[in-house]
């Protein structure tokens, strides 16, 4: 029988199928597939001026002289500003996460005044009538630099007598953060655990520097209107940006409106208060004219914050039977030259995830935040958790090798069983729900594990030049950032709640205002599904408003897989309040007791009286007219809610990668990728699947392709998409994805968060797979990204494939004005 | 970024083009497809005084049969090369290599002649032209001259085309007899330039390799012929072992650069592996 | 300044441009076609892809003067009588997230299907290698292009055509019972 025939037999007033769980096509798409979009750079305002930033070509120097007189004379130039012009009023860009009480923060000027600390730091800003005129004038700025020693290598930076990034500080260490489960009472003594262990495995892993590389370059427009300012910015965080920009510039918060229009991706990279955002405000205030700054891609790669860049020293202790006994992690985390919004917090956030899904009795984590003469690091998809997951999933494989155990068997022996949830880990987190075994079983089936293992064996036996390996990553992550009190205990500068409001319009249409600010995640669609189910109104009758502080007054924006879990929950809570308010009106109009009313399918009906009833959309009109409503209440059924979660949520999953390694060239190719994720309740399976795919692409890219490389002078040599290798369609495999569903108990939706899962889980699966392919040839580690050269060197010389050649885009290029290979050999 | 200002000339004949180049001042750039030049100008790594756009010069586009050779106009786009029946019949190696150049959009604009004159050591077509013993027809104020491929690629990004001159067409000899061809390209991602690539053309006769020509991409500042490999293959038995032994000599005498993608010794290793694979495929083994 | 005449999405425009003006900047700033966007400065990302005389090009790597006398089609012009099948398929198959790469991706896909009306997954992946997407991991884009191809070939031939109902299941093939 078909679905249609099924339905034919049902009564006509059968409620519509629930929206939650439906693969709704996205509301957002209509404008995006037709080009009818409002990217910030599309904005044109009367009298608008364009900015170009003069940037430091050197990584570390004192500015001895700045002469911009030629700039001022250039055609079309209206004004030019140097650091001196803003020295008094620019303050410092905010760092919202002082992870330790004695953390050293050197302060971060938006424009350098007397010293530059990384290549690309702003030293002057040109304001001109056109973008071209502003860019033309850049080369006329004459800045003299007195070079200072360049600090790039973290291990050297923390050594005795190292050159200093900030010479007024005592060292290059910003902070020393420790989490010791023994001291915290969440575990036993770590040193003792290691002393008692049969086996200890120690490894050093390098989390290379990455670039978020959102597709839409950053762009800012500021319009001054009297003493009011409106800023449009390609940001993930209009709400946070408004508060922070008000504090930095002294513009009163209520005089500043921030709008994030259509935003083309972020991945943490637009979770920032950017120097250029502050400079646009300062200049618009000076000139009283609207200004725009839009970065070029090379500017973006060079100056937008980077991610990862940690050296991890990981020790695991176990007994001979493969029971883990202790985990010790020591990190060096590259802050770059300054502390931006949550620069220091990224590795600290990861601290809680190193134990992964395993029942470690003892755990100690420590991290040094280290200054170098590079662009600051900050959030990038996963932010701390990919690093933790990589370390634990890699070292579990190393431990399995040491013990001669199957890597899956070792995991099984140590992971939390389904019956043990909720489970409080050695890091003090209460994992909410899950079933690692079931997810793993499904993933093994999806991959075709047994057949691939058999093929691996055949290839080994025949000494095939192309070897095959299978890598595991059985991961969990903390999402739904975050319980405000927990953030407080971690010294984070804000809460983790989210806000929503629901406005019932006279015609019955519904406006949902959310503090979660999307930039590709499909909030407009998913929130509509939530509200359609809660209020029983048609999906099409719901409009979701966001991203404008004048419309959405309260919000904490989108990052850390928090939107649905926290922001979606706020929407559901607000809907509950709308229903509660409407119930009073309905009771009044139906002349019934509130207690006798049922609410279903958008309609209040009197219990036991079929055929009666009043729709919530009708009530919206009635209360708009307000001719007849109960005494003592306000004539409105609008409501708002702020949801503060009591716990994180913990998505988990099993990711499996089958990898072919060409042992002659070192080329690696993913043969098959399968994963089963448990992200709790699925509101929209299309969106969930899309988030997993996108995360996988970025996690795989860390494993195989991407690395921000600096040369010895501190120049970013991967400064364009020619050298910073964002994978294209033909570089990535098909993904076989699946889900198990264990609802999160901590929020009314049951959602756990999905935005970062694929990115967090995939990287170690890929590296473990490559190693599994060639471990029998003596390879024990390969440094990320697994370039063919590194794989080949690891095969031939041992070691992890090593650092890259001292990076120069092309040795001969320096002599040529024409430049090196740009786009594939076509003039 | 926006390119720095320049004067623009759009000639419609070769004569007009030569005149525009002559009158263009100190720094003249010839714009063919622009797929390398325009990005370089956007990054302001090049800021020519004058750009001479060949886009409207009729007669520089297309492929024609010229007896024992085919003649490819310098302004023939990569996508036209890919769909050209003469190239498919007489020089399929060019089509195979062109298919690996950048992406569809770039191939719609980028030109055969432009890529050769740009002479990027990582470009795919120079080594192919070298392996096919192509001839380059250059015109200039002094008239018309023909330069063999072996003398065309002079240095890094430098060819025999002198200032004031233009490459107008490339003659590719038709290969008589039983030839096989293969372009073996090695790069990290789809869009990336070759780390190393090998163009192989092999003629088989009676179970032996009668003649082989091997061009190397990105093994030095110019494309190279792997002469030692060619000599070792000439007359060798057409067996995997003989090919492998010859391919071991692919990197002899090369001085490839070390850069972000590969150090020199790795490039040399790749050259031997890729040469073996290219020759094996070209020989039909 | 150089005078140029260009037909964009069916309408003729005559303007003076600086020779250095890139086609994409001309389209965005002088013609107002802001649906076409700029994503990089090295011709890698393909976000600016438009059709120039019927062929996909990266409009950031073409000078506006080179388009003089030519016909340009942007994302705003492909579906002038409603949505183009490729636009529909991107929506239907969730082939976009933030949407920034989408105009270029759609224009590149239409171009591919002109040459290859029935591409395999691998042929789609190679055919759009000049376009970068940071959100989707490409899988749903591949799905969308193949689905549009089937639609454009006449649909329902069982060869690559994917009906929305099938996609619903395909989107979440392993959703277990909610626990």
TrEMBL record, chain A:
- List where Basic and acidic residues composition bias occurs: 796-806
Q: Which GO terms describe its molecular function?
A: iron ion binding; oxidoreductase activity
Per the record, which residues fall in region Disordered? 1-27, 796-827
Keywords assigned? Molybdenum, Oxidoreductase
Indicate the segments forming the Aldehyde oxidase/xanthine dehydrogenase a/b hammerhead domain, all copies.
Answer: 34-149
SMART domains recorded: Ald_Xan_dh_C (SM01008)
Lineage top rank: taxon: Bacteria
Q: Where is the composition biased (Polar residues)?
A: 807-820
Q: Which cofactors, by name? A: Mo-molybdopterin cytosine dinucleotide
Annotated PANTHER family: ALDEHYDE OXIDASE 1-RELATED, XANTHINE DEHYDROGENASE
Name of the molecule in the record: Molybdopterin-dependent oxidoreductase
Q: What is the lineage of its organism?
A: Bacteria, Bacillati, Actinomycetota, Actinomycetes, Geodermatophilales
UniProtKB/TrEMBL annotation, chain B:
The family database entries (PROSITE patterns) matched by this protein are listed as:
FAD_PCMH
Q: Which InterPro entries match?
A: CO_DH_flav_C, CO_DH_flav_C_dom_sf, Diverse_Substr_Oxidored, FAD-bd_PCMH, FAD-bd_PCMH-like_sf, FAD-bd_PCMH_sub1, FAD-bd_PCMH_sub2, Mopterin_DH_FAD-bd
Q: Which domain of life is it from?
A: Bacteria
SMART domains tied to this protein:
CO_deh_flav_C
Kindly state which keywords UniProt assigns to this record, in alphabetical order.
FAD, Flavoprotein, Oxidoreductase
- Please list the residue ranges annotated as the FAD-binding PCMH-type domain: 1-177
Task: Identify the SUPFAM superfamilies for this entry.
Answer: CO dehydrogenase flavoprotein C-terminal domain-like, FAD-binding/transporter-associated domain-like
Say if the entry is tagged with keyword Cell wall biogenesis/degradation.
Answer: no
- GO-annotated molecular function: FAD binding; oxidoreductase activity
Matching entries from Pfam families are given as: CO_deh_flav_C, FAD_binding_5
Database matches in PANTHER family: XANTHINE DEHYDROGENASE SUBUNIT C-RELATED
What is this protein identified as?
Xanthine dehydrogenase family protein subunit M
From TrEMBL, chain C:
Name all 2Fe-2S ferredoxin-type domain ranges. Answer: 2-78
Which GO molecular-function terms appear in the entry? 2 iron, 2 sulfur cluster binding; metal ion binding; oxidoreductase activity
What does the UniProt keyword field contain?
A: 2Fe-2S, Iron, Iron-sulfur, Metal-binding, Oxidoreductase
Note the Gene3D superfamilies from the entry: 3.10.20.30, [2Fe-2S]-binding domain
Specify the pathway. Alkaloid degradation; nicotine degradation
Which PANTHER family has this protein been placed in? OXIDOREDUCTASE WITH IRON-SULFUR SUBUNIT
Protein name (Swiss-Prot/TrEMBL): (2Fe-2S)-binding protein
**Organism name:** Blastococcus saxobsidens
């Amino acid at each position: 029988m078909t679905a249609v025939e099924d339905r034919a037999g049902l009564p006509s007033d059968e409620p519509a199928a629930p929206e939650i769980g439906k693969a709704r096509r996205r509301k957002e798409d209509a404008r995006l597939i037709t080009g009818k979009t409002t990217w910030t750079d599309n904005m044109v305002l009367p009298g608008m001026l364009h900015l170009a930033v003069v940037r430091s070509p050197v990584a570390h120097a004192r500015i001895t002289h700045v002469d911009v007189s030629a700039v001022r004379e250039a055609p079309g130039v209206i004004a030019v500003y140097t650091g001196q012009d803003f020295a008094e009023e620019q303050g410092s860009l905010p760092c919202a996460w002082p992870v330790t009480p004695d953390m050293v923060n050197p302060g971060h000027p938006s424009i350098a005044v007397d010293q530059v600390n990384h290549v690309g730091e702003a030293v002057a800003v040109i304001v001109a009538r056109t973008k071209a005129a502003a860019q033309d004038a850049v080369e006329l700025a004459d800045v003299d630099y007195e070079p200072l020693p360049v600090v790039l290598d973290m291990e050297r930076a923390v050594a005795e007598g190292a050159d200093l990034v900030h010479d007024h500080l005592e060292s290059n260490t910003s902070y020393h953060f420790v989490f010791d489960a023994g001291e915290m009472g969440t575990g036993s003594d770590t040193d003792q655990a290691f002393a008692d262990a049969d086996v200890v495995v120690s490894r050093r892993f390098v989390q290379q520097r990455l670039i978020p590389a959102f597709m839409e370059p950053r762009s800012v427009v500021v319009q001054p209107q009297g003493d009011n300012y409106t800023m449009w910015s390609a940001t993930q965080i209009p709400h946070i940006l408004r508060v922070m920009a008000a504090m930095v510039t002294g513009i009163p918060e209520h005089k500043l409106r921030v709008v994030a229009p259509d935003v083309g991706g972020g991945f943490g990279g637009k979770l920032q208060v950017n120097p250029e955002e502050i400079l646009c405000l300062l200049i618009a205030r000076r000139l009283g004219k609207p200004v725009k700054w839009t970065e070029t891609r090379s500017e973006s790669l060079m100056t937008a914050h980077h991610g990862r860049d940690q050296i991890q020293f990981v020790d695991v202790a176990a007994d001979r039977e493969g029971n883990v006994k202790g985990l010790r992690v020591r990190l060096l985390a590259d802050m770059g030259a300054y502390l931006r919004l949550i620069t220091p917090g990224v590795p600290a956030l990861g601290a809680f995830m190193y134990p992964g899904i395993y029942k470690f009795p003892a755990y100690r984590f420590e991290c040094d935040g280290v200054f170098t003469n590079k662009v600051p690091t900050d959030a990038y998809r996963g932010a701390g958790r990919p690093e933790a997951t990589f370390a634990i999933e890699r070292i579990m494989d190393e431990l399995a090798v040491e013990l001669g155990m199957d890597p899956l068997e070792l995991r099984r022996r140590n992971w939390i069983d389904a019956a043990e949830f909720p489970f409080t880990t050695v890091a003090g987190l209460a994992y909410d729900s899950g079933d690692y075994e079931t997810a793993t079983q499904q993933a093994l089936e999806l991959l075709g594990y047994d057949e691939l293992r058999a093929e691996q064996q055949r290839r080994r036996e025949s000494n095939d030049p192309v070897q095959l390996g299978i890598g595991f990553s059985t991961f969990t992550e903390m999402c739904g950032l975050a319980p405000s009190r927990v953030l407080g205990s971690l010294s984070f500068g804000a809460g983790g709640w989210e806000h929503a409001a629901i406005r019932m319009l006279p015609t019955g249409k519904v406006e949902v205002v959310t503090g979660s600010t999307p930039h590709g995640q499909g909030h407009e669609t998913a929130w509509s599904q939530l509200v359609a189910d809660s209020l029983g109104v048609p999906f099409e009758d719901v409009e979701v408003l966001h991203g404008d502080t004048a419309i959405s007054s309260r919000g904490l924006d989108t990052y850390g897989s928090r939107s649905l879990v926290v922001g979606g929950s706020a929407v559901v809570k607000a809907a509950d309040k709308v229903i509660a308010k409407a119930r009073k009106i309905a009771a009044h109009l139906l002349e019934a007791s509130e207690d006798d009313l049922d609410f279903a399918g958008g309609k209040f009906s009197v219990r036991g009286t079929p055929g009666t009833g009043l729709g919530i959309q009708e009530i919206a009109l009635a209360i708009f007219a307000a001719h007849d409503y109960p005494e003592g209440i306000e004539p409105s059924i609008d409501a708002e809610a702020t949801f503060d979660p009591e716990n994180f949520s913990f998505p988990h999953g099993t990711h499996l990668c089958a990898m072919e390694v060409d042992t002659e060239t070192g080329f690696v190719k993913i043969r098959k990728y399968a994963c089963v994720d448990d992200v709790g309740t699925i509101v929209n399976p299309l969106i969930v699947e899309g988030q997993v795919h996108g995360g996988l692409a970025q996690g795989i890219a860390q494993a195989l392709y991407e690395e921000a490389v600096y040369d010895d002078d501190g120049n970013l040599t991967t400064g364009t998409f020619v050298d910073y290798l964002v994978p294209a369609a033909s570089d990535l495999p098909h993904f076989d994805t699946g889900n198990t569903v264990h609802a999160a108990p901590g929020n009314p939706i049951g959602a756990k968060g999905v935005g970062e899962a694929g990115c967090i889980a995939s990287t170690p699966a890929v590296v473990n797979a490559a190693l599994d392919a060639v471990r029998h040839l003596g390879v024990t580690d390969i440094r990320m990204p697994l370039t063919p050269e590194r794989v080949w060197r690891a095969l031939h010389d041992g070691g992890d494939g090593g650092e890259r050649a001292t990076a120069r885009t092309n040795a001969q290029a320096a002599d040529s004005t024409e430049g090196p290979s740009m786009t594939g050999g076509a003039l | 970024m926006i390119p720095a200002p320049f004067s623009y000339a759009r000639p419609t004949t070769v004569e007009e083009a030569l005149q525009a180049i002559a009158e263009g001042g100190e720094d003249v750039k010839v714009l063919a497809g622009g797929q390398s030049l325009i990005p370089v100008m956007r990054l302001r790594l090049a800021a020519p005084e004058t750009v001479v756009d060949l886009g409207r010069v009729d007669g520089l586009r297309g492929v024609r049969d010229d007896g024992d050779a085919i003649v490819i106009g310098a302004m023939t786009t990569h996508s036209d090369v890919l769909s050209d029946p003469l190239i498919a019949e007489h020089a399929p190696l060019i089509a195979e290599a062109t298919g690996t150049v950048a992406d569809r959009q770039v191939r719609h604009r980028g030109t055969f002649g432009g890529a050769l004159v740009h002479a990027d050591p990582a470009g795919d077509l120079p080594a192919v032209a070298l392996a096919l013993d192509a001839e380059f027809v250059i015109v200039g104020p002094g008239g018309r001259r023909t330069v063999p491929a072996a003398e065309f690629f002079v240095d890094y990004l430098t060819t025999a085309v002198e200032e004031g001159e233009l490459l107008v067409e490339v003659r590719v000899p038709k290969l008589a007899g039983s030839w096989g061809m293969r372009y073996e390209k090695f790069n990290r991602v789809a869009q990336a330039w070759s780390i190393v690539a090998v163009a192989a053309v092999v003629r088989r006769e009676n179970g032996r390799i009668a003649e082989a020509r091997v061009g190397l991409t990105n093994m030095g500042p110019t494309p190279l012929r792997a002469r030692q490999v060619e000599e070792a293959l000439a007359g060798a038995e057409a067996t995997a072992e003989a090919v492998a032994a010859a391919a071991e000599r692919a990197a002899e005498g090369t001085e490839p650069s070390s850069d972000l993608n590969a150090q020199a010794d790795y490039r040399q290793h790749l050259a031997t592996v890729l040469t073996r694979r290219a020759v094996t495929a070209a020989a039909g083994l | 300044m150089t005078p140029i005449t260009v037909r964009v999405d069916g309408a003729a425009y005559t303007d003076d441009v600086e020779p250095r003006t890139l086609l994409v900047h001309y389209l965005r700033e002088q013609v107002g076609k802001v649906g076409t966007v700029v994503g990089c400065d090295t011709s890698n990302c393909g976000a600016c892809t438009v059709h120039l005389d019927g062929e996909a090009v990266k409009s950031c790597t073409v000078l506006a003067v080179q388009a003089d006398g030519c016909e340009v089609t942007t994302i705003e012009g492909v579906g002038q009588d409603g949505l183009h099948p490729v636009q529909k398929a991107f929506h239907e198959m969730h082939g976009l997230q933030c949407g920034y790469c989408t105009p270029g991706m759609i224009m590149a896909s239409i171009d591919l299907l002109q040459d290859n009306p029935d591409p395999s997954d691998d042929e789609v992946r190679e055919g759009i290698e000049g376009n970068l997407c940071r959100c989707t991991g490409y899988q749903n884009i591949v799905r969308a292009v193949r689905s549009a191809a089937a639609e454009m070939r006449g649909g329902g031939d069982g060869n690559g055509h994917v009906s929305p109902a099938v996609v619903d299941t395909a989107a979440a093939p392993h959703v277990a019972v909610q626990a």
